[in-house]
Amino acid sequence: MAGVILPRFYGCYNCRKPVARHDDIVSKYFVAGHRKRALLFSHVVNVVAGPKEDRRLITGVHMVADVHCSDCGKVLGWRYEKVYEEAHKYKEYKTVLVKYKIVKLDW
Q1: Distance (Å, rounded) from C-alpha 100 to C-alpha 87?
Q2: Do residues 96 and 77 lie in contact, with contact meaning Cβ atoms separated by under 8 Å?
Q3: Count of alpha carbons within 13 Å of 91, Cβ hemisphere only?
């Protein structure tokens, strides 16, 4: 059908299960670990969160939970469960997916 624009999805790098829509990106300027690029998403699907823990990240200590692909179990990033600093509250309940751990699906 001509003229129909379908949503663009990202999937797990291992099994290609859809995990996020391109339209749900909040920020493309995140860093995961040592110079690994990442994306911050407002919504993700087909992921399972691990246990919550306080973790020191580049922007300070935050309570996070690693997120795993619900199909193959690979760690894809983390979810901000609690943010202690007011300047970073916008991250709370959002998910970071590391770019090399996700792939573009059919676009």
Answers
A1: 28
A2: yes
A3: 27
- Give the number of other Cβ atoms within 10 Å of residue 61's Cβ: 12
- Which residues in 47-87 belong to E strands, given as ranges? 47-57, 60-69, 75-83
CA angle 36, 43, 78 (to 5 degrees): 40
Query: For residue 90, how many other CB atoms are within 10 A of its CB?
Result: 12
pLDDT digits (tens, 9 = 90+) for 53-92: 999 988 899 999 999 999 999 999 999 999 999 999 999 9
Place of tokens 């690994």: 36
